[in-house]
Amino acid sequence: MTSRVVLVADPLPATALEGLGPGFEVRHCDGADRVRLLAAVAEADALLVRSATTVDAEVLAAAPRLAVVGRAGVGVDNIDVAAATAAGVVVVNAPAANVVSAAELTCGLLLAAARDIQAAGRELKSGVWRRGTHVGTELAGKTLGIVGLGRIGLAVARRMTAFDMTVLGHDPYATPETADQHGLKLVPLEELLSRSDFITVHVPRTPDTVGLIGEAELRLVKPTAYLANVARGGIVDEAALHTALRESRLAGAALDVFEDEPCTDSPLLGLDNVTVTPHLGASTREAQERAATDVVRALLRTLGGESVPEALNAPRSARG
Ligand SMILES: NC(=O)C1=CN([C@@H]2O[C@H](COP(=O)(O)OP(=O)(O)OC[C@H]3O[C@@H](n4cnc5c(N)ncnc54)[C@H](O)[C@@H]3O)[C@@H](O)[C@H]2O)C=CC1
Ligand SMILES: O=C(O)CCC(=O)C(=O)O
């Protein structure tokens, strides 16, 4: 039997790829190199990506044998799912693999923003010992507003409750039972924005959520509030956020994601009250291992006829 070709276009742990077994030939390419990607995908039966590779209609058209695209992570906004479906290509992801890591980074960014940790550290490493300009704010007794009460949003709620925060949530699909279970109150978006001292966004990037937090929404926020985005760039409008921060209509922001990635020249990077990380939400050994293993298992199931090795059958995804 000829091997089926699995093209890996973003870095994934080799141990997880071994789970594919002998029926597959694993090939690697840099998905950011468009020319190489288009050439390599021509012989691929399956394509595995993280967030850096864009799988659009052009890639799909260049891949006549492609049966499945596997996203080793949660968000599939880098994949044209409609075009894939039209081409008969199944898209699978690893919806639970990154939850803990993304939630933990969110909590870390909220703390970092509240205490100016990134700017103070940068200053000290440059040889400046200055304490007076880094007076922060406590989380205890403050209100946290969570936009999007899915896996990550709820995992953040559970963790930040331990910091004695009151939690508000907004999600059109959340039920009162979910809110009760997590000790949070469901409110309309406008109320969440105007009442929260810390706001964190955990919705997928879709045509409906791009610009969800824009100029009008930022005008509702307290000038002492902090805003975190560990979901996707563009859900918070970057130009509107920059203006709000410059006009001191917001105390600070913490961003893991950007409208255009890689992002090295956003005006937001020049503001002292912006804490940033380069899309590191899922960048832990545990999350990467789980995401790759989960997506390999989903790929094997989708291709059918392949028995899933025992080692891959054990539940890997941690509860958030
Ligand atoms: N920075 C990073 O490395 C990571 C980022 N992510 C991003 O985080 C997003 C959320 O992940 P999960 O919580 O696992 O997804 P999820 O699918 O479990 O939850 C998303 C929630 O957003 C809600 N929602 C949708 N539209 C909404 C709206 N207009 N207003 C309020 N709520 C809305 C949904 O009802 C759902 O409950 C992913 O789509 C992905 O883009 C995920 C993992 C890592
Ligand atoms: O896989 C990555 O590189 C980032 C993780 C992420 O953004 C996601 O899982 O949606």
From TrEMBL:
* All copies of domain D-isomer specific 2-hydroxyacid dehydrogenase NAD-binding, residue ranges: 108-281
Residue ranges the record marks as coiled coil: none
Q: What SUPFAM superfamilies does this protein's entry cite?
A: Formate/glycerate dehydrogenase catalytic domain-like, NAD(P)-binding Rossmann-fold domains
**InterPro entries the record matches:** D-2-hydroxyacid_DH, D-isomer_2_OHA_DH_cat_dom, D-isomer_DH_CS, D-isomer_DH_CS1, D-isomer_DH_NAD-bd, NAD(P)-bd_dom_sf
Group of enzyme by EC: oxidoreductase
Protein source organism: Streptomyces capoamus
**What is stated as this protein's family in its record?**
Belongs to the D-isomer specific 2-hydroxyacid dehydrogenase family.
What's this protein's name?
2-oxoglutarate reductase
